Amino acid sequence: MSSEYAMRGQYSAKLDIFSFGVLVLEIVTGRRNNYAVNFEHSPNLFCLVWKHWVEGTIAQIADPSLGRHYPMAEVLKCINIGLLCVQQSPTDRPSMSAIVVMLSSDTVYTA
């Protein structure tokens, strides 16, 4: 759940972007996000994905049911977009039209 909704009950298009990012990360990793998990023992999905993104080890968290039969560039693109969508600040999240452009591009984007 996004921070603006959890803390203030605010709903906006950027909340939908956040939810889209969660969905993308869950699909690519084959894992569900769990906010109730203690980070010291088992990080939530965002922390886990971010850790692997920074370390350059994304292949380690790709959905194992895919059996390594996928283009790594597409996995990286989806993880990149998912991480942009779950930024804490709504203003840092891309618009849906920007996401469409990113999905059809081969470029890696930053916040």
**Number of strand elements:** 0
Beta-strand share of residues: under 5%
Q: Quick check: average pLDDT?
A: 83
Please count the helical segments. 5
| DSSP helix fraction | 40-55%
Major beta sheet summary: none
Poorly predicted runs: none
- CATH architectural name: Orthogonal Bundle
3D shape? globular
Helix/strand order:
HHHHH
**Can you tell me the number of structural domains?**
1
What is the CATH first-level class name? Mainly Alpha
Radius of gyration: 14 Å
GO molecular function, one term: protein serine/threonine kinase activity
Domain Serine-threonine/tyrosine-protein kinase catalytic: 1-102
Organism: Sorghum bicolor
InterPro entries: Kinase-like_dom_sf (IPR011009), Ser-Thr/Tyr_kinase_cat_dom (IPR001245)
Explained architecture:
The radius of gyration is 14 Å and the shape is globular. It has 5 helices and no strands. Helix 2 (13-29) runs antiparallel to helix 4 (72-85). The chain has a single domain (3-104), classed as Orthogonal Bundle (Transferase(Phosphotransferase), domain 1). The longest helix has 17 residues, at 13-29. The protein has helices at residues 3-8, 13-29, 45-55, 72-85, 96-103. The chain is mainly α.
